[in-house]
Design a protein that fits this description.
Distance between the termini: 17 Å
Order of helices and strands: EEEEEEEE
Oligomer: single chain
Helix content: under 10%
Strand order of the largest sheet: 1-8-6-3
Number of helices: 0
Structural class: mainly beta
Radius of gyration: 15 Å
Length: about 100
Amino acid sequence: MSGFPEDMRVPGFGHGLGEALLIEWVAGVGDRIERGDVVAVVETDKASTEIVAERGGRVTDHSAPVGTILRTGEVLYRLAADPTAPDPDSGDVDGEAT
């Protein structure tokens, strides 16, 4: 992942559901998140669901305010690489270049 912010999209909700209501931002703009951290909570007509981060980085922007109907595939937030975090694709696990 480059240092430039990357669009992170609304995942599929399953069970033929294509949209959900954004009810809470858990990760704020400027927050550092890790893969698997909860970013937001949405509600479908079936249940409340947590949206988790696909990768780590720093949240640079929310693309929708609470109360917005989100559709699968839309941009949800932007994520920039954290320059202090090792790049999992480089084999760099201790912060030192190999």
